Design the sequence.
C-alpha cells in the first residue's frame, strides 16, 4: 500500500528528530521494546541509551520530563494510553504548564507528551478516553490533535521544536486507518493553525481526530443529496485558530461541532461559544454539538460502544436536521 | 435481511475466528443476544446481535478465520418470534439524530447513563444531552415564518429586503439565509439599499445578493501569476496587522535636479531618467538609519538585514511582479537607474530569473506612475514595510514668512507590519526620508 500510516509517520518523525538533536530522548512504559502501538520500534537499537523504559508511574514519567527539560534536554514522553495520564495531571498542570509563566519567561520546558487517545477499538473504560477537555483548560500548555499522517509528522516536529510543553494526542483508531505520502504531503507545520479541509455552503462541521474522518465521510454522503458541508480540521486545540474557525462559520451560518468525548464540559463547548460570541450576526441556526452522551466511560460491549460514539451516520443525521432548519 | 459483519475487536486486530455459533438459522434473536463466539489474537468475545429478528443464513462456519468486515450471518429484521421485544429505553422515543424529546428535557445524566446501559444501542440516536431549548427550536412545529435569524436580519438590512415578501423553506416556514439569497437572485426588484456587504463573492447566488446579475458574466481563468499575487496579498493581510502613515515632501529641488541631469543621462544611457532612482537612493540611506524597517518576519523571529535588497513593484500586463535590486545601497543613482530599467524590461518580457525576485528586504512602490497621489500599499510579506512614492504635483503651499509659493509636492506613504515595529520607528523613518528628499537639489 502506498504512503505512510499515522503510526509510521510518528515513528519516522521521532527517528529523524533524534538523529538531528541528541538532546531529544524518549521515556515511557515499554518504549524500549517499541511500545504497545510500535511507535518507538527500532529506536532503542538505533539510539542506545536514549529510549528509556520507565516504571508504571505516569507522574514520574512527566515529572522526570519536567526536570530533564529544565536542564536543557528535550524529552518526548509516551503515556501508553491517554486514560493513564491523569496520574501525571499535577506534574502537567501545576509544574509544566506554569514553568515559563512563574519564571517570568526566563525558563522554558521544551517537552512533549505523546499519548494515544480515543475509542472505537473496543478498548473499554481504560483504553478509550478522550482527555482533551481537561488539558485544554491549562493555559501554558499546547494541545495538538491531528487527523492525517502528514500533519502528525509536521506537527510532531513543531511540538518537539517548541520551547514550551506540548501535549500531542494521537487517535489510536486512526493509527493504521489512513495513509498519506509523506514525501509529497507537507502537512501543517504551524502550531495553532486549523485547516478548512472541505468547502460547502450549507453548514460547517468542526472536528479532530477520528471524528474528522467520520465528518468527512458524512460530508461526502451529504454532498450526494445536495447538502454541502465545510469541514474544519482543528489540528491544534490549544491555542485555537480563531480566525479560521470564524471565517469558516460565517458563510454557511450553521455550525455543528463534533467530538467523541462526552458532551457536558466537552471541548465542543469552547468552539460553540466562540462562534456564538464572535459570529452571532452570521448565524442562521442554533449552534449544535454532537458528542457522546454523559456516561461515565466508553463501554466495551460492541453495540454499546457504537451507541456511545458519534459516527458518520449520526453526523449526517445531525447535519441534515441543521441544513433543513 | 441484514448482514452482520466481523467487528474489529481491538486496535491492530485484523481478523477473527468463529469458535462456535450460539444461534442457528430460524432461531429468534433479541437485541444483544450473543450470536457467536469469536477468537482473536487478543481476546475471545461473544458477538452481541445489533438487531432484533430471526436468524438467517450462517456464512462462516465454526473454526473458520475471516478478515474484519467479512459477512458472518444474516438476520431477518422484525419482532423476535417466541419472546417479548425488549423495552426501548428513554421512554420509547425513537428519536431523530440528537433526540431527547422536549418533554424529557429534564433527563438527568444518571437516567441517560441508565438508558445507555439498558438500551443496548439500537442503531440510532446519539443521545446528546438535554439541550432542550435548542431542541425545541429545531423541532417545534409552531409557525416560525416570522422568526428571523441574525444572518437573515443582517442580510435583509444590508440588501434592503422586505422579509415579509420572502417565502420560507426552513423548518415550520422559517426564512433561511439561502431563501433571502434566492429571493435576491430571482425575486422581485430590490430597492437599492446602501450595501455594506463585505463577504466574498463565492457563487452566482451570492453574487446576485450583491446586486450583480446572476447571468451575463464571463469567467476569467486565473493565471499562475494572478494566483500567486492573490495568495501573497491575502497572506499579508491575514497575518500581518498593517498600519499606514503618510508624509508630504516638497520635492521641487529633486524635480529640478532630475531636469538638469536628464538630457545627459538619456544620451549616455539610452534610458529615460525618472524620479525613482533618486527616491530609491534616499530610501537606502534612510534605511541605514532605521534598520528595523529593513527586515523580514520569519515565523517566530524577526531578521534585520545588513544589506539593502529593495523590491521594486512593476506593473506588467499579466500582473504585479516585484523584482529585487540586490545590494541597492552600494549603487549610485545612475547604477540604480540602470538596474531598475533592466529589471523592469525583463519583467515585461517575462524573463526574470528566480534570483531576480527573491530575497527582498524592503519594497518601493512607484504608484505615482499611475497618477496616484495617495495609496495604501500591502506589505510584501514576509518583509515588514513598504513605501510608496506618489505623483509629484505642483501645488500652492505656505512657505517661509507665510508666503504662498507653487512647489512640487509629493506624498510618501508607508504601510508596516505592526508586529515588527511601532509608529515611532515608522514615523521616524518617514520623517527622515522626507528630510532627505527635500534636501536633494
Sequence:
Amino acid at each position: 500500500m502506498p504512503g505512510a500510516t499515522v503510526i509510521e509517520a510518528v515513528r519516522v518523525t521521532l527517528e529523524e528528530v533524534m538523529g538531528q538533536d541528541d538532546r531529544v530522548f524518549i521515556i515511557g512504559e515499554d518504549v524500549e521494546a517499541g511500545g504497545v502501538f510500535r511507535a518507538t520500534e527500532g529506536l532503542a537499537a538505533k539510539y542506545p541509551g536514549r529510549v528509556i523504559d520507565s516504571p508504571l508511574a505516569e507522574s514520574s514519567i512527566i515529572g522526570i520530563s519536567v526536570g530533564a527539560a529544565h536542564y536543557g534536554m528535550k524529552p518526548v514522553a509516551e503515556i501508553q494510553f491517554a486514560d493513564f495520564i491523569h496520574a501525571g495531571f499535577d506534574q502537567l498542570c501545576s509544574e509544566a504548564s506554569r514553568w515559563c509563566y512563574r519564571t517570568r519567561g526566563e525558563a522554558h520546558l521544551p517537552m512533549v507528551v505523546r499519548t494515544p487517545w480515543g475509542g472505537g477499538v473496543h478498548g473499554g473504560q481504560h483504553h478509550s478516553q478522550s482527555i482533551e477537555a481537561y488539558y485544554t483548560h491549562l493555559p501554558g500548555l499546547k494541545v495538538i490533535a491531528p487527523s492525517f499522517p502528514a500533519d502528525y509528522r509536521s506537527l510532531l516536529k513543531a511540538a518537539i521544536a517548541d520551547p514550551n510543553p506540548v501535549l500531542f494526542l494521537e487517535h489510536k483508531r486512526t493509527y493504521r486507518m489512513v495513509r498519506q505520502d509523506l514525501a509529497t504531503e507537507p502537512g501543517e507545520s504551524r502550531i495553532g493553525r486549523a485547516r478548512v479541509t472541505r468547502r460547502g455552503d450549507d453548514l460547517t462541521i468542526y472536528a479532530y481526530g477520528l471524528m474528522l474522518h467520520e465528518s468527512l465521510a458524512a460530508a461526502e454522503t451529504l454532498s450526494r443529496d445536495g447538502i454541502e458541508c465545510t469541514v474544519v480540521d482543528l489540528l491544534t486545540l490549544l491555542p485555537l485558530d480563531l480566525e479560521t474557525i470564524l471565517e469558516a462559520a460565517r458563510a454557511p451560518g450553521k455550525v455543528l461541532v463534533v467530538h467523541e468525548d462526552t458532551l457536558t464540559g466537552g471541548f465542543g463547548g469552547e468552539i460553540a461559544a466562540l462562534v456564538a460570541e464572535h459570529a452571532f450576526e452570521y448565524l442562521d441556526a442554533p449552534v449544535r454539538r454532537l458528542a457522546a452522551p454523559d456516561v461515565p466511560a466508553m463501554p466495551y460491549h460492541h453495540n454499546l460502544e457504537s451507541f456511545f460514539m458519534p459516527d458518520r451516520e449520526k453526523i449526517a443525521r445531525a447535519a441534515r436536521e441543521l441544513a433543513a432548519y | 435481511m441484514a448482514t452482520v459483519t466481523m467487528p474489529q475487536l481491538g486496535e491492530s486486530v485484523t481478523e477473527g475466528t468463529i469458535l462456535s455459533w450460539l444461534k442457528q438459522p430460524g432461531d429468534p434473536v433479541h437485541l444483544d443476544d450473543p450470536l457467536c463466539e469469536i477468537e482473536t489474537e487478543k481476546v475471545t468475545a461473544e458477538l452481541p446481535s445489533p438487531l432484533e429478528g430471526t436468524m438467517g443464513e450462517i456464512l462462516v462456519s465454526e473454526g473458520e478465520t475471516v478478515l474484519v468486515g467479512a459477512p458472518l450471518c444474516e438476520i431477518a429484521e422484525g419482532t423476535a418470534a417466541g419472546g417479548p421485544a425488549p423495552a426501548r429505553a428513554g421512554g420509547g422515543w425513537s428519536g431523530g439524530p440528537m433526540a431527547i424529546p422536549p418533554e424529557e428535557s429534564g433527563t438527568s445524566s444518571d437516567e441517560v447513563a441508565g438508558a445507555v446501559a439498558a438500551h443496548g444501542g439500537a442503531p440510532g440516536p446519539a443521545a446528546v444531552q438535554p439541550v432542550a431549548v435548542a431542541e425545541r427550536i429545531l423541532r417545534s412545529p409552531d409557525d416560525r415564518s416570522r422568526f428571523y435569524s441574525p444572518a437573515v436580519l443582517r442580510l435583509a438590512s444590508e440588501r434592503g429586503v422586505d422579509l415579509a415578501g420572502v417565502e420560507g423553506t426552513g423548518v415550520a416556514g422559517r426564512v433561511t439565509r439561502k431563501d433571502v439569497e434566492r429571493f435576491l437572485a430571482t425575486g422581485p426588484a430590490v430597492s437599492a439599499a446602501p450595501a455594506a456587504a463585505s463577504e466574498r463573492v463565492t457563487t452566482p447566488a451570492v453574487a446576485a445578493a450583491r446586486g450583480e446579475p446572476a447571468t451575463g458574466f464571463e469567467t476569467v481563468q486565473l493565471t499562475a501569476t494572478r494566483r500567486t499575487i492573490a495568495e501573497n496579498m491575502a497572506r499579508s493581510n491575514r497575518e500581518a496587522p498593517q498600519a499606514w502613515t503618510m508624509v508630504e515632501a516638497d520635492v521641487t529641488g529633486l524635480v529640478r535636479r532630475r531636469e538638469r541631469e536628464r538630457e545627459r543621462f538619456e544620451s549616455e544611457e539610452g534610458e529615460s531618467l525618472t524620479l525613482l532612482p533618486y527616491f530609491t537612493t534616499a530610501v537606502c540611506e534612510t534605511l541605514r538609519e532605521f534598520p528595523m524597517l529593513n527586515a523580514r518576519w520569519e515565523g517566530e523571529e524577526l531578521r534585520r538585514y545588513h544589506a539593502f535588497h529593495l523590491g521594486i513593484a512593476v506593473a506588467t500586463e499579466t500582473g504585479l511582479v516585484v523584482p529585487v535590486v540586490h545590494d541597492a545601497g552600494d549603487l549610485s543613482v545612475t547604477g540604480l537607474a540602470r538596474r531598475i530599467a533592466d529589471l523592469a524590461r525583463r519583467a515585461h518580457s517575462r524573463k526574470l530569473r528566480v534570483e531576480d525576485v527573491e530575497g527582498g528586504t524592503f519594497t518601493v512602490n512607484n504608484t505615482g506612475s499611475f497618477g496616484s497621489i495617495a495609496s495604501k500599499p500591502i506589505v510584501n510579506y514576509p518583509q515588514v514595510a513598504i513605501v510608496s512614492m506618489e505623483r509629484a504635483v505642483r501645488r500652492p503651499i505656505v512657505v517661509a514668512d507665510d508666503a504662498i509659493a507653487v512647489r512640487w509636492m509629493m506624498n510618501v506613504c508607508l504601510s508596516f507590519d505592526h508586529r515588527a515595529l511601532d509608529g515611532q520607528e515608522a514615523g521616524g523613518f518617514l520623517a527622515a526620508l522626507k528630510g532627505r528628499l527635500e534636501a536633494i537639489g
Q: What stands out?
A: The two ends of chain A are 43 Å apart (CA to CA). The mean pLDDT of chain A is 96. The first strand of chain A starts at residue 24 and ends at 28. Chain A touches chain B through 52 residues (CB under 8 Å).
